[in-house]
Amino acid sequence: MKELIRHEALPAIRMTHLSSVERELLPLAFGDFLDTAATATARATFYNSRAEQEAAIDAVHRDLYEMDRGVYAIALLLPGMTDYSRQIGAIRLLDAPYRDGVLTAEQEASVLRGLMNQLPPQRMLKLIGMLRQRRVNNARTRKLILSVLLGADNLEFWAVKYRRKIATALVHAWGRRTASTLRAVLAKPVEQRDAKERQIVQRNAYRFVDVDDRDRVEQCVRFVLGDESGLTMRRLVAYREAKRDFRRGRALPLETMEGLRSRFHRDKSNADVLELTKSQLTAGQRMAVQRKASESNVQIAFDPARQDAVRLYVYAFEMGMTGAIRAELLKKARDAARRLPVRFEHAAVLLDVSASMVGHETQARRPISVALALRDMLAETADWVTMVSSDGREVAGGELIEPVGDTSLAAGLVTLLKQDPDVVFVVTDGYENAPAGRFAEVVRAVRRMGVETPIHQFSPVFAAESRGVRSLCDAVPGLPVSKPEAIGLGLLKVLFEADVERGVAALLGMVRPVIEHFADNGRTIKDVRDAQRIEEVSHDVS
Amino acid sequence: MMFRNRLKTIYVKDVLLGCTPGRIQSVGYMQVIPLVSDLSDDRFVSPVEAEAEVGTSDYGTLNFRNPSNRVMIVPCHAGYVVKQAAQDHAMAHAGVIRSARERSFDTAMCVQQSQGGLIRRGDYRMLILPLALREHALSVRKETNYNKLWNAISVFNRDMGVQGEANLVHFLKHFRKELDEFVAEFECVPGQVGAVILVDDQVVGIERTPSHDYWRSVWPCLIRECYGSLAIRVAQLKGERAEAPASRVGLPDDIGSLDELESVIAEIAAQEEERAKTTVRELLDESLTLTRDDSIAGVHVETVEHGRFTGQVIRQGERIVYASLPVTKKWLADSKWQTAQPFAI
Predict the structure, then answer these.
(1) Cα–Cα distance, A86 to A525 (Å, whole number)
(2) Phi, psi (rounded to 5 degrees) for A38
(3) Contacts of residue A451 in chain B, CB cutoff 8 Å?
(4) Which of A249, A301, A515, B102 has its Cα between 20 and 30 A from that of B324?
(5) How far is the C-alpha of A43 from the C-alpha of A367, rounded, in Å?
(6) Each residue of B7-38: pLDDT tens digit?
(7) Whose CA is closest to A146, among A185, A119, A179?
């Protein structure tokens, strides 16, 4: 993979706290971690049960965490990590006290804020639920929950959409008694609160909120804690009034209004709710409800530009491919390829379209969707591209391919190598059966005859039984991909194997903007960096 | 077809009518030759396709409700291992249930000695009994005795190195990972309605179903528990000497160019295709002696007696709509003699 890396300037890091054995083991643990965390969802796959997935995921997380807590924390921020990996990573970091490593305590706090903010709201709230379930309630956890929730710009929307979950999260952070006290205190007008009450509000809420936002946050907190009196904010009022008047629910999210309909407006249909709340749908919902909308005769505009390529492919499998979607997919592929530090004259792509690429029923067609999105992006890394599928057909970018049949990749590899490309990318789940092992035999044969064209395997499926992706061949290790943007993870893995310190430096370089953005009190990572460990120098990595 | 003394003789070629062999799939000791057909009889559904409700009303009695508007064929030796505290059961034979009807089979067998309780009616994951148990299960298919398979399961578990008398769940748990891998490794191909299954180069079973959808729904159960269990046993017996079957042709070491490599791969693929055809061709004239067990919904359920294969076929008139034919233990044990070439100088 080294040949893929262009010259880059990276900061130098000295990992003086690692023993020589740990320096050898860290790249292995890091590689396993990337394989797993970039694709793991803890759902059953075509091959593994949920329990197997969870056990395998936990093992790789533990290995890297125990090796270096800082590297583990930073790695969780990498683009391409799944939400589930970030959730269980954040829990692991919050559950154990800070330990010295490559990050300072302040930097780690920034990472945690970054992790929370990068999760979609429902998954962020699920993470808080998981913390509650595991009784993780230390000062760092409480501060993190309150700063993320009370400081959120979308708090009003979240309050009506996830009312109960936010209440549970706040009660977990404050404790039942404080939450109850706060509810009583916030019910009073500000000017009627005594000094002690003002102190309670300051300590538990105001310190996480800008001065201008205090009234907004107070109303939202009162609302989620069950006090609906004296509210003036648009959505909170709409919630209260929509119980009586269906039409007032226009400002509410679809799910919220659906809940109110089932309790207070049973004469109304799902289609009525969809029509009423269509202006409030998120971009993801607009895509998800297309089938329902079409069945209910409701027109809902859907902008493919606001979806990622994988979701667009999943959508196209369900609803059909259109010219607009294909154009958007190809544009996304071009944009993603532009951000990669590689460019080829001639690239070749071998695409596995066998039956197992459908994936498990809980994530149906996700593996093939990842594979197709990846194919499009890889095609855009070169001036000229040759692509064939496992069933021997030439394929084109943006083409929707239904997975069927057995897996035979060897003949396709030879077909591509005969075109003399700069590189061959094989996109597969790693299960070959016609026959098993033939691909590895072909790779050995071509190497023996002196063909050194780089061959790389990318796998969209996490296979727990091999603690990572399943490789077709020892000489071509499989690299995990959950979305095209995550392809840079493979480069990191190779850097770690070559030189731990340069690997950590590259890792830090990739996530530094996020850490800086979430640094506490405006301090950036530069300000808090330990000069003993990190010094800024330029390196050529090639 | 010939009729003699109320028995009926058919041939494997009758079972494979309308099929052609597909590309052989090969992983480890197991090989599968897909049987592909343009003909698909969609009048029949499997319990998986129909989302049939299954339960036990008494020890040894399995009940099925067919909610579909098609005739449901319960595969021979279908079983249900459920999570609830209930005694897991399996059928001792195949079953046919009319559309939108219920039917009980009091010839079913308990496969979990240590557990009591009846299975609540519901839609559960189906399995097909391990191949090593199927011949015995069929021999006692007419007995109404819920514990009739316990001894066979105890022997099976012991052979597989699994603790737990007469409890199939111990085997399933112990080898769950290996069994799951078989499902992952062998994929359905378009138009597939059946398969010839080989383990270590020996044909160990022939399966034929009415339609492609039926096949897709039962294949995971067949490859996982039924034939997968045999592949695990063979791997155990081979021990450290684990290797691909002798028939698996590897690439030669002295290939000099990509063109040559391409032609060698094509040549080996052609050889493998020919071998698949030969394997199937050699089976075609194998006779199957049938005795009739049941007639319902215009089809006959018949059992294969005395020969290379055991199992059952379901016929409608002269047409075989379903067949599950695992090889007999005796044939498997004597296979080297059975397939020896005739003396010649």
Answers:
(1) 21
(2) -85, -15
(3) 258
(4) B102
(5) 13
(6) 789 999 999 999 999 999 998 888 999 999 99
(7) A179
Nearest residue on chain A to B191, alpha-carbon basis? A405
What's the CA gap between A480 and A34, in Å, rounded?
A: 7
Helix, strand, coil shares of chain B, percent, nearest 5, are: 30, 30, 40
Q: Provide the token pair at A400.
A: 């929707």
- 3-class secondary structure, B72: strand
Nearest to B227 by CA among B193, B200, B248: B200
Buried b (16+ CB within 10 A) or exposed e, A379-415: bbbbeebbbbbbbeeebebbbebebbbbbbbbbbbbb
Question: Residues B237, A428: contact at Cβ < 8 Å?
Answer: no
Chain B residues touching A411 at Cβ < 8 A: 262, 265-266, 269
Both tokens of A170, joined, read: 């706040």
Q: How many domains does one find in chain B?
A: 1
Q: Say how many residues make up chain B.
A: 345
The answer to whether the CB atoms of A445 and B255 lie below 8 A apart is: yes
Four-point Cα dihedral B69, B70, B71, B76, nearest 10: -110
> Is B139 inside a domain boundary?
yes
Q: Which domain holds residue B323?
A: 2-248+284-334
Segment A205-215, tens digit of pLDDT: 999 998 889 99
Could you give the CA distance from residue A388 to residue A378 in angstroms, rounded to a whole number? 13
Q: What is the mean pLDDT of chain A?
A: 84
Name every residue in A having a CB less than 8 A away from some CB of B.
46-49, 52, 354-356, 404-408, 410-411, 414-415, 417-418, 431, 433-438, 441-442, 445-446, 448-449, 451, 465
Establish if B307 belongs to a structural domain. Answer: yes
Provide the pLDDT confidence category of residue B338 given band limits of 50, 70 and 90.
low
Domain boundaries, chain A: 7-239+251-258, 240-250+259-307, 309-494
- Please answer yes or no on whether A406 and B256 come within 8 Å at the CB atom: no
The CATH fold of domain A309-494: Rossmann fold (3.40.50)
B177 touches chain A (CB under 8 A): yes
The C-alpha atoms of residue B288 and residue B82 are separated, in whole angstroms, by: 35
For A465, the closest of B177, B186, B257 (CB atoms) is B177
